[in-house]
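Hi team, as promised in this morning's meeting, here are the two structures we talked about. I've kept the exact order from the run log so nobody has to guess. The first one is mostly here for context; it's the second one we should focus on when we meet again. Sequence first, then the predicted structure tokens.
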Amino acid sequence: MKKSLLAVALLSTLSTGVLANQAGDILVRGGATMVSPDSAKAGVALDGAATPLSISVDDNTQLGLNLVYFFDSNWAIELLAATPFTHDVVLHDPSGVTESVYGANLDGAKLAEVTHLPPTLSALYYFNTGTAFKPYVGVGVNYTIFFDEKFTPTPDSVGFDNLELDGSFGLSAQIGADFELSKNWSINVSARYIDIGTKATFDLNDPFNVGLEGKGSATVDVDPMVYSVMLGYKF
């Protein structure tokens, strides 16, 4: 009987207001964040004319950080930050154009590396569950800045140069949940979609005098899913 009363008391503690978010609470989280871009390939144009080439961007995982400020038990604002993400850009050449021109097939080759930061500001709505499990939904706005864009040695040696990617504004949407381990500590999981689109431009020189040169471009819809698992501390 005593064990049953103790179990009831513990469950009651988990559903009391001491675990509820309150106005002025600040939640700091840190953990792993993976950016998984849309797998669709972006066509490459040269001097505005379409080519058989296309590119895609791979996944990357970094340290994710975010800060949440609560206006009341339901509404909060969240800032997502992270250490810079670096993605491989892969070249796709199913028709073998690069082999016929350069004598080397670059299909599936790592064309370049790009680094970016995707800070995102979101409004969150927490659902009242009366327990330590606190699910939420959110919408926000993102600005992604790209930097340190560079071609890898093989593409660079055949004339690819001066890679640049434009910054991107876009909306985001997410679902997530905190599970409170104690009054201050919690574990968070979340998944969000971010609308990121950028235009990549580059120069294609003609080191082999084959008549293939000009200004290249590709419109890349990165549009990643962003997954996070974090440990949080509430002040």
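And here is the second protein, the one for discussion:
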Amino acid sequence: MKDRILSVDIFRGATILLMVLVNTPGTWSNVYAPFLHADWHGYTPTDLVFPFFLFIVGTSIAFSYKNRTVDAKAYKKIAIRALKLIALGLFLGAFIIHFPFFKNFNEIRFPGVLQRIGVVFFFAALLFINLDWKKLIWATAILLIGYWLLMTFIPVEGVASTLERAPNNLANWVDVKVFGSHNYKADYDPEGLLSTIPSIASSLLGVFTGLILTSKQEKKTKILIGLGGSLLIIGHIWDIIFPINKALWTSSFVLVTAGWANLILALIYYLTDVKKIEFGSIFRYAGANAIVIYFLSSFISKVMGQIQIGDTSLHGWLFHRIYVHDFMALETSSLLYGLSVVLFYSLVGYFLYKKKIFIKV
């Protein structure tokens, strides 16, 4: 397409390949700190990756639905796409490689990355096609402020709420009560139910960026930089009373991650769409089939982790046979394994793109 904004495609592809990198180290026992999530409060570069993807989902919503007719057909398409994403996520959580090919019901994790993408896409798209930009600002503010009030002022079974990892943390308590044994951890889920509320705001902030990019505004780069810087400042100020936390997806976390997303996207936009400098094609190829690449990487990684070779898995066997050497730190070996996986899926993205195969979920 002539009017396609290359920077968005590059940003999307880079984000999905980063998701693959941080999800597939050689060994979780030896990973460089920037490629790990923060223990609880605070954030690392890795904590930016998933919110970046939800942000770009919102940007894509602004592109795809800006001029579409709001009718039953539009609602049906939105609902079907959301259900497909949720179904793929549940499949990943339940699949095992041996008969009967699915875990016992009590062992299946209900929340997950694809499930959250599906839910967030559904609500962000519905809000976008029904509200103008001013009402969307109010909706975003209500989601963020409302979540802050819920998390800090609602007691849990008569005990004052906390933002620490504890039974009287409202988000954790809701996850345990609703999902029981179906959480990622026994006491909480990083893609839990209550924390999905502010994650919708992550996507809505991406919607605003999409509206800026498709508008007739001049100096879009400066607008994105100003927006990104403002969100960063407000988010870090809010961090004082509502700590930045990915596991809880706090409102300050939403603002800070959207701030970084705008700043990075502004740089890519300036280089590719303004200055017409050609770079990042490999990311663009991956971005064209982002969900497919994420699903394949997760599925194949899961299969490799379950195939046994001696006393280890196929994943472990390949890692130790090819990447582990006496002259190299295990963290470096682990990173090289992850980069090899990224290279493989970059080639998959390239192949699909060149063959004009675009699988829309």
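Starting points for discussion:
The two ends are 20 Å apart (CA to CA).
Residues 330-354 form the longest helix (25 residues).
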